[in-house]
Amino acid sequence: MLCKVLKGMKDVLPAESARWRALEREMRKAALLNGYRELRTPVVEHTELFARSAGESSDVVRKEMYTFLDKGDRSVTLKPESTAGAVRAFLEGGLQGQALPCKMYYLNAPHFRYEAPQSGRLREHHQFGMECFGASQPSADAELIVLVVNLLASFGLKNLSVRINSIGCPNCRPAYQQEFRSYLNEKKDQLCKTCQERMEINPMRTLDCKEESCKAALTDAPEMLGHLCDECSEHFEQLKQYLEAAGIRYTVDPRIVRGLDYYTKTVFEVVTGTPNGELTVCGGGRYDGLVKEVGGPATPAVGFGMGIERVLMLLDALEEGECKLEIEDETPEVFVACLNKSLSLKAFGMVQAMRAAGLRADMDHQGRSLKAQFKYADKLCAKYVAILADDELERGVVKLRDMTTKEEWEAPLESAAEALKARL
User: Fold this and answer.
1) What is the CA radius of gyration of the chain?
2) Distance between CA 199 and CA 183 in Å, rounded?
3) What are the DSSP calls for 380-402, one per residue?
4) Start-to-end CA span in the chain (Å)
5) Taking Cα atoms as reference points, which of 394, 398, 310 lies closest to residue 354?
6) E strands present in 313-407
7) Are 323 and 307 spatial neighbours (Cβ–Cβ below 8 Å)?
8) Percent of the chain scored above 70 by pLDDT?
9) How far apart are the C-alpha atoms of 46 and 348, rounded to whole Å?
10) Among 261, 267, 306, which Cα is nearest to 51's?
């Protein structure tokens, strides 16, 4: 073989694509029900957009971005996440001057992160996400969390848990960071090299470390929740009330900080249990300062991202009958076979007529014998076969066969499509 797919990237073959489309169909439906409309942004952006938005302490910026110089000697990056691009599009498209809040979603958006491929996360992976600009109230945060939980549950996923936290705002966070940095200085020798760097740039990012030594060192670390200003505290308490009103059970987890520096106030994760431990299915939060950071007016915002590959992996692990995702049948409804090659033009015409009537139709393109055509139709899982033969054509009819029951009957040529549609 001349080439193989790159490490951490994967083909989605036709047999798998139907599952993706079924998932996307339900995600679109959920987004539209909640007033979100689709946004599509380029896969490549100026590197500065991600460097400014994600923050210099994030692993995304420091280690994981696919960054290169284009032919104009400009530094560009394959997008590692979609929020920054959504902010740019919001501003560049002049949406900040329209009715707010502006609610947008993206779907099947490819993201690129140069990291070790892991469970449900590849170097090229795809996300479903939603972004709400111009809504300052915690009801917007709660709306997204409720949507995510209901959507995942509708797929048949169980053991879902919601974890929330507040990481404050620029008014209350500096005092906490100063106290936390002093705490970290005492534990510095116990921290990994990455966390030793993080503690100088953004100490809260050490709470997101997966190294066991760092987890142990931070067991009694001070929590941001005890340092919230009145505004952040009230926002967090109201978020809880909205979730409770919607019947959403949650846990307050002061360790959630998320992996990007732009978050403020609310951060949340939706987690599920697996045989290999807990897995985060979705994460998000509020980023009230990001629009201004990118060059726009101060605009509150909240959003989330959900990995499509990860959701599909979890659905694959469900027991038979537990998955509630309805996958549409894409097999041919009718296969047009002909007795000999001289009738292939007639077969081609009938296929076009069947398709014009809205039927999924196919035919042989290899000059197979009639017997071989039936075998091919069976492999395609065609429901019916329309058989063209000279005798039947002279009488103006076509023979139809049910491939399941093997029942055969004749129908007028001009109404064969309607006859099949009636059966289907």
Assistant:
1) 28
2) 10
3) TT-SEEEEE-HHHHHTTEEEEEE
4) 43
5) 398
6) 334-338, 361-363, 384-388, 397-402
7) no
8) 98
9) 50
10) 261
CA distances from residue 236 to 105, 137, 265, 386 in whole angstroms, order as listed? 24, 10, 8, 64
User: CA separation (Å) from 299 to 135, 202, 291, 320?
Assistant: 8, 23, 6, 46
Q: For the chain, which residues make up each domain, given as ranges? A: 14-172+228-316, 334-423
Instruction: Measure the CA dihedral 278/279/280/281, to 10°.
Output: -130
> Cα 149–151–147 angle (5° rounding)?
60
Residue 67 has a CB neighbour count (10 Å cut-off) of 15
Give the closest residue to 194 by CA, choosing from 185, 205, 183: 205
Per the CB < 8 A criterion, the answer to whether 27 and 150 are in contact is: no
Could you report the per-residue pLDDT of 322-358, keeping only the tens digit for each? Answer: 999 999 999 999 999 999 999 999 999 999 999 999 9
Residues 6+ apart with CB under 8 A from 340: 370
Token pair listed for 264: 């403020």
For domain 14-172+228-316, the CATH superfamily is Bira Bifunctional Protein; Domain 2 (3.30.930.10)
| Fold type of domain 334-423 | Rossmann fold (3.40.50)
pLDDT tens, position by position, 124-158: 999 999 999 999 999 999 999 999 999 999 999 98
305: its two tokens: 């991202």
Q: Which helix (H) or strand (E) holds 9?
A: none
As given in the structure block, the two tokens for residue 345 are 């033009």
Q: Kindly state the tokens that stand for 209.
A: 């470390």
Per the structure block, which two tokens stand in for 23? Answer: 């998932």
CB atoms near residue 340 (< 10 Å): 12
Please report where in the chains the tokens 């490819």 appear, as a residue: 110
**pTM of the full structure:** 0.91
* Measured distance CA(292)–CA(82) in Å, rounded: 17
CA 9/CA 399 separation, integer angstroms: 47
**Strand-strand pairing, 334-338 and 384-388:** parallel
Secondary structure class of 107 (helix, strand, coil): strand
Residues 188-220, buried b or exposed e (16+ Cβ, 10 A)?
eeebbebbbbbbeebbbbbbbbeeeebeebbee
Determine how β-strand 66-69 pairs with β-strand 75-78.
Answer: antiparallel
Strand ranges, E, within 169-220:
none
Three-state secondary-structure class, residue 368: coil
